[in-house]
Amino acid sequence: MEYSFMQKRLAIAVLFLSLPLTGCAVAAIGTAGAVGLTAAQEKTMGEAVDDATASNEIKSKLLSESANSFGEVDVEVTGGLVLLSGRVNTPEERVKAEGIAWTSTRTKDVANEIRIEPPGGFLANVSDEIITGRVRARLIGSSTVKSLNFNVETYDGVVYLMGIARSAEELKRAAEEASVVGGVKQVVSYVRIRGDTVGRAAPTTQRSPSTQTTPDASYDTGADAELIGASY
């Protein structure tokens, strides 16, 4: 009887994990996960909760607006900086997605990396997920990178790094680790350096493979109000 009871509990757990997550479920799991990792990260518990809440809020709003238009838009939030990646069909949808990102009271800035392309399909998304997993594995295996401080998103072979680096050297090393993973075309960083008095991310762009140079820790805002990485 005891064995049967445990079997039922296991079955319920497996069933729950296999179901699509609703907005409430995503919010609950995302926030709990953020709190659980805070002790090992550079950001505070409050910052982790705010980021998880903002991410789930923006994702829910995008899908509520149009699941067909924004189903392939990914949202990542770190330190109030919202990274939008993925694809939409029209320039108007790209602008609309950014507008929705700004509706969150927790949004401090938006990096709009959304491309205007037709749907990529299942295989394209799987390929990007595989690259993301490999990049994370490289960061975890690095002795010079505190991997929990970095979030990784991949779209069409372009890897986006977010988070908080302990130094410019650590950020450079993280970009190097990501750039050598098979299938990576480019590394774009929106990572903030810990102790940066400006309080902004330090976007850097690195093509793979490439000769390593010192990242340009500044935003290129000469002719465009959007956040873009400095190429090198």
Automatic annotation (TrEMBL):
Q: What is this protein called?
A: BON domain-containing protein
BON domain boundaries = 50-118, 127-195
SMART domains in the record: BON (SM00749)
InterPro entries registered for this protein in UniProt: BON_dom, Lipoprotein_DolP, Transpt-assoc_nodulatn_dom_bac
Q: Which Pfam families match?
A: BON
Signal peptide region: 1-27
- Where is the stretch described as Disordered? 199-223
The record's annotation in Gene3D superfamilies points to: 3.30.1340.30
Matching entries from PANTHER family are given as: BON DOMAIN-CONTAINING PROTEIN (PTHR34606:SF15)
Q: Where is the composition biased (Low complexity)?
A: 203-215
Query: Which controlled-vocabulary keywords does the entry list?
Result: Signal
